[in-house]
Amino acid sequence: MAEHAMERLLKPGDRAPNVVLDAINHGGKVAIDDFRGQSPVLVGLYRGLQCPFCRRHIAASALLASALREKGIDSLTVVNTPIERARLYFRYHPMPGIITASDPENVAHRAFGLPNLQFTENEDEWPYKVSMPTVMAMRIDMPGELPEPMGCLDAAAYLNNKDGYEMTPADQQTDEKYGGQLVGEFLLDRDGIVRWSFTEVEGGGSNMFAIPKADDVMSVASQLSH
């Protein structure tokens, strides 16, 4: 367990660390400290854009961005995708309501305590290791998106085909490095303290590929508004 000693998932009440990343929307950098003392911010930490579940999670976050902005809350989305590939994607899928950042070295996810799952032959140690039999037994039910409950690998392939998403070498490299990266959202107040979170870590895997309910996000946001 020593290898996991430095990974502690941030919880409500914890102070978020500063992380400095390359901005996707524009040149330059974006940092957690940019918001500290200025405004609350919803930080979404996702796998690379090659993950169709993450793309849907990001799109759902973008839909909430204007309502959050009305409450004085910014939205920061972080992906493991390298900067040039990420800029190309958002050029064709603009989401003006959110600030986007590239994190190909997985700095933010580690800082917030989100593990990168290792895939094993037969060892399960959630949330650090998961066996391939466990992965193959998972079923994803997304009515309206999938024709029926499907295994996660088949579901990902189906959704990528449905989206017309073509994997590039950069996508493949990201998937090889961070295909098991667990994701999450953290709502920080203007002092940078976590006030709410939703991650794939909790629930022993039951939150995998899930998206938090908009009402839950907005309920907490209302408490942080002006």
UniProtKB/TrEMBL annotation:
Query: Which PROSITE patterns does this chain map to?
Result: THIOREDOXIN_2
Q: Where is the Thioredoxin domain?
A: 10-226
List all membrane-crossing ranges: none
Which Pfam families does the protein's record reference? AhpC-TSA
Q: Which InterPro entries match?
A: AhpC/TSA, Thioredoxin-like_sf, Thioredoxin_domain
Q: What is this protein called?
A: Redoxin family protein
